[in-house]
Fold this sequence. Notes:
Elements: E1 7-11, H1 14-25, E2 28-33, E3 38-42, E4 50-54, E5 71-77, H2 80-92, E6 97-102, E7 106-112, E8 118-124, E9 142-143
Parallel strand pairs: 1-4, 5-8
Antiparallel strand pairs: 2-3, 3-4, 6-7, 6-9, 7-8
Amino acid sequence: MTELAHIVFYVRDLERSLVFLRDMVGLEVAGTIFNGRVALLSGGRTHHELLLIEVGEAPDPLRGRRVGLYHVAFKVGEDLDALRGARERIQARGFELIGQSDHTVSQSLYLYDPDDNEVELFVDDSSVDWRSDQSWMEAPVKPLEL
């Protein structure tokens, strides 16, 4: 494999999800298909990194320990100031911050999207050389103070 290409989510309300992904993550709509029930979103790296399919009313995603997707992570910038900006957007739009962690190689915020999928917003720590020094794996999750 050369790269992770894209992720597909089923969503109840396409427009509501598009607002969340635009405002919280910074993705833009690259196009819509199937009479506007499917949207392709991109951060600019490729034609789409995320595809949303509107399905209407359906059961919530499972939470807690189970087999299947846990969360999706989006890099939102290059430093802690970008992460602070993401936290301000989360709070200003009334989303609940469900966690924040210092992973040594990255720092992260966690929240649920409008369809209860867990989303991680993160920045990498440029001072950590994760390719040659894997000592960060000894304590991969610590409290994050922003």
